[in-house]
Each structure stands twice: as structure tokens, then as C-alpha cells.
Amino acid sequence: MRRFGRTLVAAALAVTVVGGSAGWASGDSQTAVTGPPPGTAAWRADTSAGRSLPDPATATPHEVAAFFAGLDDAVRRDLVRSHPLVVGNLDGAPLPLRYEANRIAVTATGEARYASLAAPDRQILAFDPRGRGQVAEVFGDLEHARHVSVIVPGSDNDAATHDARRKPATGPAGMARALHEATGGSTGGSTAVVAWIGYTTPVGVGLDAADGRLARAGAARLARFTAGLDAVGAPAPVLFCHSYGSVVCGLAARHTDATDIVALGSPGMRAGTAAALHTGARVWAARGPSDWIADVPNVEFAGVGHGADPTSAAFGARRVPAADVQGHTGYFAPGTQSLAAFAAIAEGAAR
Predict the structure, then answer these.
(1) What pLDDT score was predicted for residue 195?
(2) Fewer beta carbons below 10 Å: N end or C end of the chain?
(3) Is pTM, for the whole model, over 0.85?
(4) Which of 212, 208, 174 has the alpha carbon at shortest distance from 193?
């Protein structure tokens, strides 16, 4: 009975402590945005291409890629103009078309909070204005990259805040830029990095951050996203999973073709060991000495808490050096051991 009581206390503590990169605040329950993108009904009804368009709800990314491969440029452009929200979010569609479609879709919202995403130099691979908004942004040349990394962030991230002013190299876009730079991005490196906020993240600290509901929805979307990368010929990705994002990656692991999965500042991956993730990817883990995530109990009880500490010896992940990381969001800071290790993993050079 005493042990049971300790478990209940730990689980309750997990509810109040597990949070995101924005800090310590009460959490609000979020409704996960799932399903096909806005405009799907009009897309399904469109016969202008002379054939049925692939159903965003059921077509695989490879089926989508095959469909677009059979179209001439004029038809492709017409579909982008007529259905930007669908084409822009359709995994398996050609990358340049998605960038163009999302520029149109962002502009069409007329919302100032999204305006910067429509700049000509931005490569927006996905944009969904529903809820708090979701976005994926590419840094580098994804079409010709030899290596691809995907940043999967945790709580308090959405389309409006993913590139908000913060400390350098923090936030999804900041992390992606730092990794791209560390892999030679400014000198023509061969690694592309995607900042992927393709799921509804928890807000602040609350039950959403301590249970797996939003992570399960996010895992399905992440698995489809990585299948979409494969469908357009991109290399199998490395997943860098921060905070609650590591819960998403843990649940998605067996459904992706990732070569490596890196959990950083993780509250747990909903698995007792790296082997229990059932993935062929190499699993890595990092935690800095001042990261408050260390205070989160590594329990899972009645759906609350995310289980074993990925940095523990018993979990079996490869350790990433992080002795000089400051706080919960400093893993990509220039000059840190962790960023140097991340760059080596991203380039396939780590052993």
C-alpha cells in the first residue's frame, strides 16, 4: 500500500511538473487537430484534372506522389491555385508545389501573426490554420539533400510562435537553424533540417503535458509526414525530439523509417527501454545538468506520466554529451557539446 501511495504521489507530481519550453505555467486542455486539411471537400469534388484527385484522408503519400507525377505543369499549377491548403499539406506532393501553395494559403488568412511565413525566402512545407495553427518549415535544400533531420518540439509551440523572438537557437525554428548551420548550411552543406510543428502541442503545465492523448495524435501525423518525405525521394530522416516531442517520437518510432531518434530534455518516451520502441533506428538521449525535466518523476500510472528516463543506463539509449547545456532549451546553443554531437548524428558521422 505504501508503494502504491508513492506511485500516486509521483503521478500527481508529474501532472503539475511536466511542461514545455515556455516555462512554468498552468495548462489549458487542447483539442487535437487531426484529419485531412481544410478544403478537402472541394478538392474531392474537383474534376478539372480529368480524373479523381487523391483523397487526403485515405491516399498514401506514395499514391499522392504517383498522381502528381502523371500531371502536366499547367494542371499542377491550377491545383495549387484552386486548393492551396490541400496541396500545401498533402504529404507526397512535390516540394516546390507545397512551398508555393503554402505561401498562397498563409497570405489568404490575412492574419498578421502568420504574415512572416509568406516571405519569399521561407520554405513552408505545411501550414494548417486550424486551432492554434500548425507549420513545418524547411532550412536548406530538401530536394537535393543527402541527409535530412526533423525537429519535433514540445509544449507551447504552434504556427504563430515557432519562430517567435526567443533566446537564440531555441524554439523549433531556432533549433532547426542552429542545426542547419552546424552541418555547414551557410557553406553549401548537404543536410536539410525541418522544424515540424505538425501536431497540437500542450499549453503550459497541466494534464495535457502529462498524458499521452496529444502525443498519440501527433505520432500518427509524424509517421505520415516521414512517409511523405520518403515518397518524394528524401533520405530517411533523423528525428530530434525535444521535451514532450520525445513522447510523440516514442509513440511514432515503430511507424517511421528514421535512421536515428534523439530524445533531449525528455520526460519519457512511453517505453521502458529503447528496445521497447520497436524501431530499427539508433536511439540517443541527452539531458543537461540544469534541465528542470530531471525533476519530473519517471512514472506512468493510469495514463499519467511518460515512463522511464531515456538517459538512464537501464533504458539503453546512446548518451549524447550535454554537460555544458544550460536549462531546458539550451541543447542547440552554438559551441555546446550537444550541438556538435547532434550535427555528427545528422550527417551520419556519429558512432
Answers:
(1) 98
(2) N
(3) yes
(4) 174
